[in-house]
Amino acid sequence: MRRGGAASLLALLAAGAVQAQTVSDRGLSYTLYGTPGLIDMPSALSAPDGQIAATMGRFDGQVRTTFTFQLLPKLSGSFRYSRIEDYSLPGARGSVDDYFDRSFDLRYRFNDETEILPAFAVGLQDFLGTGAYGAEYLVATKTFGDKIRVTGGLGWGRFGSDGGFDNPLGVLSSEFDERPALEFEEGGTFALDQLFRGDAALFGGVEYAATDKLTLKAEYSSDAYERETELGLIERDSPLNFGLVYRPLPGVQLGASWLYGSELGLTGTFLIDPGRRPFGPGLDPAPSPIRIRQGDARAAATWDRAKIPEATIGATLQQALAAEGVELSSIELSDRAVRLRYTNTRYRAEAQAMGRIARMLSLGLPDSIERFTLEPMQRGVPLSAVTLSRSDIEAFADTAGGTQALSQRLVLQDAGPRDGLEPLPRVDDRLSYGLAPYARITVFNNDEPFQVELGAQLSARYEITDSLVASGTLRQQLYTNREDPELIVAEDDEPYPVRRNAALYADQGTTGIRDLTLAQYGRLAPDVYSRATIGYLEEMYGGLSTEVLWKPADSRLGLGAEVNYARQRDFDLGFGFQDYDVVTGHASAYYDFDNRFYGQVDVGRYLAGDWGATFTLDREFENGWSVGGYFTLTDVPFDAYGEGSFDKGIRVSIPLDYVVGQPTRREASTSLASLQRDGGAKLRVDGRLYEVVRDGHLNDLEDGWGRFWK
Predict the structure, then answer these.
(1) CA pseudo-torsion sign 416, 417, 418, 419
(2) What distances in angstroms separate CA 465 from CA 380, 525, 527, 589, one per listed residue?
(3) Where is the signal peptide (predicted)?
(4) Residue 255: which H helix or E strand, with range?
């Protein structure tokens, strides 16, 4: 699937937020930290499962931008990027005008609220970062009627700094009595020696839902803002905060608060529910009806080939399916069965394309043909074979529960041999091209926290054969706010700067080749797929990439191996190369956990020559949304890696049909990384095999089967 950039993703997030009704519990809102709670203090509430919240909170020189995802009904995670004016961490060398901080949170809710018991939750704030916002808490929340909600909690770290008392966990071990001093170093590591250590303090508050759109709040904060008051950044005259939250539109929250007797705080939150489509079932064009055969026609042994030649059937089906966005490549006909190989170019769910094909076959095939075998392809490679009974299709087309009944009758196998298939001449254009604007946004860089590049790009693709494709992208930069970057050279034991000079490509490659490749896809054996890509593989590297994947159509497990030779390109994005080259490669394991969670582990060598492993976990939704996280650990020491200590981040993919309502396989994807440096850097190659083949395999077909009749 084609992927867009961060700018497209931000636009889709905004569009989805305005249209998504995401909060069912009146009064649930987000704090200045971007987590469900009061004003500055957390509560024990959880957002609806799968909800995404993007929050910006600001007061007196502090700006916190937070991305929070409800991973599971009781577990949420947050990634926060903050700016504090004229701030430095204790023990840090020197001071800075603006301090930029990246942090991660986790929160787990133990139970649902009942008529008697409140909801209880435990949270770790900034447990993976510098620790500037480090805090832990236990919190309980209880609702009274449909208007009042009360929260009380016990905090440590920042949340134990005002009104603190001896740690009650000290009865378990004296190690809980003292909290080690915060060590800045490079950040990004687990501060296990600080969790639930040191003084504890109580916090709490109350929320009043005045209307469905307006909530009033008051809280007692246990955060003394010790470092901020020491530096004279804020005045903390009172532990009491007061605020309100207003919801002008579904999925939008605006908040204002009076903080600590001296500061005005403002928040804005966009809420997205990936499980809910703005256009309901979508705006897909209506499918063709199912033609029901008569009983005597079903029993026919053959058809009159003189009246309906096989060539006529193939050509007619090819033309009809082309109107549905399906490219029919070959067909095999017998008296009782038909087998098709085709490429779905329009529908995100392969099952939806199968439903459209089944309808066309019921309309256009002789009545004696009872068995339909559909073999979806991508990049010229057959992915699987799904066999359906025509009688079942007729019986379940307009029956309650028919979709599920049909899924239980289908037979899924590996794609059959090429023998017997009659190729059809292509009716579509092998050459496709387009001119479009592009935007590249870089955030979370300490020197330039928000960088933007705008321009136009010309993309072209030519299918020499179904499985041999030449493609390329030419870019023309029109605007950037980047300052002139300097060449970064590795010092001491630092890894070679395989990614840190990325700004030079934007600076010198104002007109240049983003990528230019020739890719060959194939099947080496049943269940074994291959790819070889040569050329200018990405913006920074060219070379050769080869890959093999074992992935049975009915298996949750996939195993792959990739070997690449990569050479660094010149900064001007022309045809030249620099001196640095490297052989990289990974052994990979992919697993579908059957609840829309997909895991991936890659073990091998990275661009800087370092060895290690990358762990990825994605949660996907029925409508195509995907939210996940990853981290990479290699033999590059944390201090040599630099700020952030190791590579980690969040990635999000949004299908375009979620917003526009029309069927398309396009999507916008981006990663929110804490800070990418050189350790753990992978080559970026389009069309890696697992993402190409999985659409036609068992679990993806099952997940999308609800769209078979759409």
Answers:
(1) negative
(2) 8, 20, 21, 30
(3) 1-20
(4) strand 252-259
Residue 677 is predicted with a pLDDT of 80
Rg of the chain over all Cα atoms, to the nearest angstrom: 29
Average pLDDT in the chain: 86
Q: Tokens 């947050």 map to which residue?
A: 78
pTM for this one? 0.85
- Residue 432 has a CB neighbour count (10 Å cut-off) of 12
CA 496 to CA 498: how far, in whole Å?
6
Fold of 21-272: Porin (2.40.160)
Q: Counting Cβ atoms within 10 Å, is residue 116 exposed (0-12), middle (13-18) or buried (19+)?
A: exposed
Enter the tokens of residue 50. Answer: 């799968």
Which of 33-42, 266-275, 443-452, 547-556 bottoms out in mean pLDDT, i.e. has the lowest? 443-452
Query: Domain 456-700 carries which CATH code?
Result: 2.40.160
* CB contact at 8 A, 246 and 263: no
Q: How confident is the model at residue 298 (pLDDT cuts 50, 70, 90)?
A: low
Sort strands 263-272 and 189-190 into parallel, antiparallel or unpaired: unpaired
- Is the distance from CB of 84 to CB of 76 less than 8 angstroms? no
Residue type, 85: E
Tokens 């769910």 identify what position? 349
